[in-house]
Amino acid sequence: MIRVNRRRSGVCINQSTSNRKRRVLMAPVSFLQGSNDSEEDMFGDYDSFYGNDSLIAQVDDIEHKYLQDKNIDVKAAGEVVLGNLQSEVHQKEQDNFSGACQKHDSDPPDGNQELTESIFNDLPSSQLLYFEKMNELSSASRTSPVSKGRDERVNSSSDKVRDPLSFYAGAERRSRPTDSSSHSKPALCKAESLKDHLKSAMTGNARAQTLQVSKTKQLKEAVLSEEIFVARKAIESPSVDIGPFYRLPSKVKDLFRQLRGIETLYEWQHDCLTLESLQQRKNLIYSLPTSGGKTLVAEIIILQELLCRQKDVLMILPYVAIVQEKVRGLSSFGIELGFLVEEYAGSKGRFPPIKRRVKKSLYIATIEKGHALVNSLIETERIDDLGLVVVDELHMLGEGSRGAILEITLAKILYTSKTTQIIGMSATLNNVGDLQKFLQAEYYTNNFRPVDLKEYIKIRDTIYAVDSKSENGFAFSRLLNFKYSSNLERADPDHIIALVTEVIPKYSCLIFCPTKKSCENVASLVCKYLKKEFRAHKEREKEDLIKNLKSIGNGTVCPVLKQTVPFGIAYHHSGLTNDERKSIEEAYSSGVLCLLACTATLAAGVNLPARRVILRSPYIGNDFLKKNQYKQMIGRAGRAGIDSAGESILIVQEKDKHLVIFTNPLENCYSNLLLELTKGMQSLLLSLVGLKIAVTYEEVDNFMCCTLLGVQQQLLPKEKSLSEVIKDGLENLIEKGLLKGTISEKDHNSKSALTITPLGKATYKSSIDLAYCNLLYRELRKGLEGLVLESNLHLLYLSTPYDMTFTCSPDWMIYFRQFNQLSAAERKVADIVGVPESFITKKASGQAIRKNVDNAVVNRLYLTFVLYSLLKETNIWSVSEKFNMSRGYVQNLLSSAASFASCLLHFCEELEEFWVYKALLTELTKQLTYCVKAELIPLMEVAGVLEARAKQLYNAGYKTLAHLANANPETLVRMIEHLSRRQAKQIVSSAKYAGSVANTELCLNKKYRTSVTNLAIYPTLMLRY
After folding, report:
1. Best exposed site among 14, 109, 530, 866 by fewest CB in 10 Å?
2. pLDDT higher than 60, residue 983
3. CATH number of the domain encompassing residue 982
4. What percent of the chain has pLDDT over 70?
5. Interatomic CA distance for residues 168 and 119, integer angstroms
6. At what angle do helices 578-589 and 539-552 cross, to 10 degrees?
7. Does 62 reside within a domain?
8. Cis ω on the peptide bond leading into residue 505 (within 30° of 0)?
9. Which parts of the sequence belong to the Helicase C-terminal domain (predicted)?
């Protein structure tokens, strides 16, 4: 009654492991089937399953031995023989099987039913499902007598699965002939020997069509399919929760409480998270005032995607500082919940990202890096791995070249992936209809603020409350109550001291200033006239802050900060280094500092709320304040959980009063694809062809209709249609040598395909501005003819970003001094790039210059000198003093150069002729990214480790990523000063991740190792290419 299961063919025993590790024999073989003598003996002289012992011969001998006893009927003999056969195949299960057979012989039908029930109780439901699947498969392949007989056996087995109680009873019925019981014994006696029947069954099974996949594998797949089906049903069904906290595990709620101090959600947050559109995975735009809690909603949606749907997520943020802050904030969630947080900003980020089997990734990126990431996913056909894209500050779609890049990114996602959900949020949106149409999104809005905001305007010494019902938009509130001396009146005509002393030091205050210099002047002014009692407030913490700033500046502290910090006052703008800004922000958040004089960038950056926000002027630089900018700034007023209300005061001069109209609507968000041609329209067209999203004119035209520009075609010039704009853009790319093909008036609607050139491919994959791609190519070619390898000065010049040259104004005496400090070989670099020594000398001495020299090249070389000094000294403070530049500008130059070097590296990777640059640019990019001594670079690749921490770790003996990855967090806490346990765990986890990425890159770069070695040993090789 059994089939012995072989890997390919033969007699089959279907086996399944029960929970008690017991074998169950499932599918019977009829031994009464007559053999066909005409059939070829497929087994020849070898009638055993294995070479030494003949199993069929043993069956024959045992049969004859037991048939000698006339009292034993054929049925009993067959069962005893099978018991012996089973003992040969599964020796260790002999007792169990023999006992079952004996019980089958002697027990009444009720006993048979009990045995059958116990056997099937051991089978999991997924295994029963497997036999039903096999029944369906077999019914579809009945094409021959042999296969038909095999199907009948499978069907009979399936019937037993459906009716377990008939398992043995049914087998017994089929083991008897269909004739009457009086003829059964003669029929059995006339039957062929058991050996022949067994051989016949083996022959039938061998000739039968078998499944290509093993049944064990099919069983596993059936179980897995069942589990996946149930899981997906739970996730996709809007009515089924897979966790108590918005379909998330309760651990997520605990983490928000532990790490953020969030106990409950606002009502609007609950309403938004339970929107029907979100449950149906529709795209969504939502808008609330600043500080309303928009980001928390986005983070919960992100966690749902990562943990529930097991998809990767891209979060796009406007600035590098915000990206870094968000990476730090969400890394702890990643460690606790088992997903990766990857930073894509500056020179950081891998394209395409590493594809992982288990852990999913949250990519946190700037606008530019997010675009490059999406390109790489489309190119590798992995865009559907991206389950969700979250865009913060969605209104930036209307802001210059960065808005154009954001529009391109979102349009590509919408066009290439039907499964990726897009969530956009902003505090300042007006023409939402256009954005909804572009993103195919639902819209949710609410006016909720955690604390009330009271808006005021100050003219002279009078405070007016903003009132939309009044005639001019504001109504009288009060007069300032502060006695000004004549000297103080001259020093502070805008009464800033009166306004700030009403709230500090008990409460916090922000003063937004139009320029960076104004920030420093206001901070100095306020502390100059404050009473000495202000110094006593948190005096020790202020001293620690100054020590920290001194450590950051390698022993130097900004004179202004040294004067203002003791009073709890500081300034905040791009002139500070990243480390300085971070220290000041932390001190302000903890209450050590109570007043910040800052620029408008803080409003769009990190979240630093205040009791009172003062706008020093209705101008930003020379431009009048926009309504969007005003709303963002005043949105910082009022701290949830601390203040009962927030206040904003706009200082306006009498002459500007008529310009301030509070009833004006927010500015509309318009496409910038046309205004930013090289970073907008042309860049989009090039990448569409390069990524094969659209390779014909017709396809490009269809894509463009899906962009924000396609929605806002009223922005097009009156004399041109969208089709004509597309045609002009494609022709321009062909002229530049970036595309190949023809577009003419006659056939521009044809389906002739466009192709991308190697230069075009290198340009779009490296995110190089199309305005500079041909110039960059020529400079790299020229470098191959004679690249100076004595130092990295020549490489640094090639890595200096073009767009920084417009903000540079060289000091010619400094230029001359730096040039004279170069070696003879390094001076050749100036000649190669086109800045002769005579030009610099004449400029420094004030002589007239007759020879024309490209100012962009002159400025670029000057910036290269700054970078060269930075890499040698690794001290931003000393370099900024040497070149008479703000340290913030120097750090911005360094960051931009690192990012451009990364782009340049990708550019060279795509062009075979520039293979030599790859080896050199890889290391240079790291040097520019971290600007530290070479031995600290590996440690700086760990998230959250800055230079000061890297030095601590290195001095403590943790000198490589491997050392950190294998470190014990508790040991780190003991050895490293001011390191918390949570930070230690984060450092170890980040080191493990960074190490895995480094190993992957090492494997990918293996083919370049010989090149690196040869270049290091034989620099002259560079001159031959």
Report:
1. 109
2. yes
3. 1.10.150.20
4. 73
5. 11
6. 170
7. no
8. yes
9. 499-685
The CATH number given to whatever domain includes residue 468 is 3.40.50.300
Look up residue 428 and give its amino acid: T
Most confident residue range from 62-66, 200-204, 339-343:
339-343
90 found inside a domain: no
Query: 711 is written with which tokens?
Result: 């929605």
Are both 868 and 944 inside the same structural domain?
no
Per-residue pLDDT band for 82 (boundaries 50, 70, 90) equals: very low
Residues 534 and 580 in one domain: yes
Which residue, chain included where needed, has tokens 């520019």? 928
CA 997 vs. chain centroid, Å, equals: 14
The pLDDT tens digits of the residues spanning 638-659 come to 877 777 789 999 999 888 887 7
What does the H/E/C string look like for 464-494?
EEECCCCCCCEEEEEECCCCCCHHHHHHCCC
Same domain, 721 and 804: no
Report yes or no on 25 lying in a domain.
Answer: no
Residues 461 and 532 in one domain: yes
End-of-domain residue from the set 726, 758, 790: 758
Judge whether 198 and 81 are in contact, CB under 8 Å.
Answer: no
Confidence band, pLDDT 50/70/90 cuts, at residue 474? confident
pLDDT class for 77, splitting at 50, 70, 90? Answer: very low
Whether residue 686 sits in one domain with residue 734: yes
Task: Specify the pTM.
Answer: 0.72
Least confident of 759-768, 845-854, 893-902: 845-854
pLDDT in the model for residue 418: 93
CA distances from 584 to 337, 514, 544, 593 (A): 31, 20, 12, 8
CATH of residue 833's domain is 1.10.3380
Burial class from Cβ neighbours inside 10 Å (0-12, 13-18, 19+) for residue 634 reads: buried
| Cis bond upstream, residue 186 (ω within 30) | no
When divided into structural domains, the chain yields a total of: 5
Q: What is the DSSP letter of 1009?
A: H
Tokens coding 371: 């675009």
User: What contacts 472, CB < 8 A, 6 or more positions away?
Assistant: none
Amino acid at 108: P
**Alpha-carbon torsion angle 529, 615, 598, 629, nearest 10:** 180
| Spatial distance between the Cα atoms of 481 and 501, rounded to a whole number of angstroms | 11
Q: Which residues contact 129 (CB under 8 A, 6 or more apart)?
A: 222, 226
SS3 of residue 426 by DSSP: strand
What value does the CA radius of gyration of the chain take, rounded to a whole number of Å?
39
Beta bridge partners of 248: 245
Handedness of CA 888, 894, 897, 902 (dihedral sign): negative
Scan for tokens 């190669």, then name that residue.
Answer: 832
Give pLDDT, residue 824. Answer: 92
Helices (H) and strands (E) in the chain, counts: 45, 19
Amino acid at 271: D
Strand-pair category, 462-466 with 452-459: antiparallel
Picking from 207, 198, 220, 212, the residue whose alpha carbon sits closest to that of residue 3 is 198
Task: Give the three-class secondary structure for 240.
Answer: coil
Same domain, 752 and 785: no
Task: For residues 863 and 794, state if they share a domain.
Answer: yes
Residue 6 lies in a domain: no
Q: Which tokens is 225 given? A: 């399919």
d(CA 367, CA 319): 8
The tokens of 137 are what? 């498969």
Which residue spans within 502-594 are E strands per DSSP? 509-512, 569-572
What value does the mean pLDDT take over residues 583-598?
92
Mean pLDDT score, 708-718:
91
For position 1016, what pLDDT does the model report? 38
CA 560 to CA 551: how far, in whole Å? 16
Sign of CA dihedral 492, 498, 504, 505: positive
Statement to judge: residues 260 and 301 lie in one domain: yes
CA distances from 417 to 252, 307, 420, 495, 860 (A): 29, 21, 6, 56, 41
Domain carrying residue 356: 250-445
